[in-house]
Amino acid sequence: MRVLLSTYGSRGDVEPMAGLAVRLRALGAEVVMCAPPDFAELLDGLGVPLVPVGRSVRAMTKGAVTGTAPMPPKTLPERAAELVALTYDAVLPAAEGCDVLVATGLLPSAGAVRSVAEKLGIPYAFVSYFPSYLPSPHHPPLAWPGRPLPPDVTDNRALWELNAQTLNELFGGAVNTHRASIGLPRVDNVRDHVLSDRPLLAADATLSPWLKPADLDVVQTGAWIRPDERPLPEDLEVFLDAGAPPVHVGFGSIPLRDAQDVSRAAIEAVRAQGRRVLVGRGWADLTLIDDQDDCFAVGEVNQQVLFGRVAAVVHHGGAGTTTTAARAGAPQVVVPQLADQPYWAGRVAELGIGAAHDGPTPTFESLSAALKTALAPETGARAAAVAAKVRTDGATVAAKLLIDEYIR
Predict the structure, then answer these.
(1) Do residues 366 and 358 touch, judged by C-beta distance below 8 A?
(2) Residue 333 belongs to what H/E stretch?
(3) Could you give the dihedral angle defined by the CA atoms of residues 285, 286, 287 and 288, in that order, rounded to the nearest 10 degrees?
(4) For residue 313, what is the DSSP state?
(5) Which residues form the Glycosyltransferase family 28 N-terminal domain (predicted)?
(6) In terms of Cα–Cα distance, which of 27, 184, 17 is closest to 92?
(7) φ, ψ for residue 153 (rounded to 5)?
(8) What is the dihedral of CA 206, 212, 217, 221, to 10 degrees?
(9) Can you say whether the dihedral through the CA atoms of 28, 201, 355, 287 is positive or negative?
(10) Of 401, 349, 393, nearest to 218 (Cα)?
């Protein structure tokens, strides 16, 4: 049994695939992953071979946010065409002898994986980490940058039709031009082609349910969580033991334009609540603002353990961070930046396990208000109750499904 997993995106796109890879290997499957070169160390530590795709995602996203992009800017369709070609060229040789290809991440990249699957006659599966990437009458689609949803259209099915048109305009040319170059027929609806007729939804049903009835046959497996057994660094343990649980502030693999201003606003807002501060540097490069002993900075650590020892988590709202904090019973303040993050901010607020920050730019005033909600006793009680319902077997469910339905 041989499975190829493919994604092009940030740590939040790669980590769930790593969780699936671990469970597939435990069930006897051989796994190879196609992903950006940023994650070579992560995958090497798991013993999962990496076929690198494209350039460093961290360098490109940081360059785009800070205005220091390492290459001349291109249009979105031009970047899509480049990504389709790069992904196809990497995945095609790696897919030889595979029983199933599983794709997620940016739509052009997943489109290239589906082309490889067709070319080699291998089954293909698409996975989303949140429901609103998948068409449904119960929710609207995500709004693409520069293409807001029309305010006069309120019917979700109509909005999804517009979404299909938008994605055809942005990515249809890139996908179809490449398909023609390798002898594959044109597709009229690039979104539905990439998502397939039966996509997987790797999200926890308590935090992010798929509502039925729906037109699409979605299989919700639960979130794909990779168990992390690493101990916390000794100096972090010393800080945690030195006082009351701190508030963790971090934006994961999301760069920020004004990291120093955000660091200052966050630290001062947490201190104003009488709490200590734990700063996660991440791709945003958050920093300490002074040398007071109530504040400590960390790099890459085991968040599954850490979030169980903090008073609250301030973060960007990625699917993985939201699920990890919810599973740990930590109240949350979600400061959404892009993509699925506004969705997760809304879910945290709806569930009563934290606060949704209004907009992507936190200030002392806005964070202070959100922290008052997150640190309230009733929010902590609700977060603890929801934590008991979050399942951790999603990757196992998905691995067994892939083996039973696509391989055996």
Answers:
(1) yes
(2) strand 332-334
(3) -160
(4) E
(5) 3-134
(6) 184
(7) -105, 115
(8) 10
(9) positive
(10) 401
The whole-angstrom separation of Cα 327 and Cα 251 is 18
- Check residue 399 and give left, alpha or beta (phi > 0: left; psi -120 to 50: alpha): alpha
220 is written with which tokens? 């919700």
- By C-alpha distance, which of 394, 391, 389, 392 is closest to 221? 394
CB burial of residue 217 (10 Å; 0-12, 13-18, 19+): exposed
Distance in Å from the first CA to the final CA of the chain: 9
For residues 302 and 325, the answer to whether their CB atoms sit within 8 Å is no
Residue linked to tokens 């699957």 = 117
> Whole-model pTM?
0.93
Residue carrying the six token digits 């690039």: 190
Domains of the chain (ranges plus CATH)? Answer: 2-226+392-407 (3.40.50.2000), 234-387 (3.40.50.2000)
Q: Give me the residues paired with residue 248 across strands.
A: 278, 313
Spatial distance between the Cα atoms of 77 and 63, rounded to a whole number of angstroms: 19
Strands (E), 129-282: 200-201, 219-220, 247-250, 277-280
Determine contact, residues 279/287, Cβ cutoff 8 Å: yes
Spacing of C-alpha 214 from chain mean position: 24
CA–CA distance, 325 with 71 (Å, rounded to integer):
36
> Are 191 and 167 in contact, with CB atoms under 8 Å apart?
yes
Query: What is the rounded distance in angstroms from the CA atom of residue 397 to the CA atom of residue 395?
Result: 5
- The tens place of each residue's pLDDT in the chain, 408 residues long, gives 899 999 998 888 999 999 999 999 999 999 999 999 999 999 999 999 999 998 887 776 655 555 555 555 578 888 899 999 999 999 999 999 999 999 998 999 999 999 999 999 999 999 999 999 999 999 999 888 788 899 999 999 999 999 999 999 999 999 999 999 999 999 999 999 999 999 999 999 999 999 999 999 999 999 999 999 999 999 999 999 999 999 999 998 888 888 899 999 999 999 999 999 999 998 888 999 999 999 999 999 999 999 999 999 999 999 999 999 999 999 999 999 988 999 999 999 999 999 999 999 999 999 999 999 999 999 999 999 999 999 999 999 999 999 998 766
Give the number of residues written for the chain. 408
Residue tagged 């790069």 (tokens) = 86
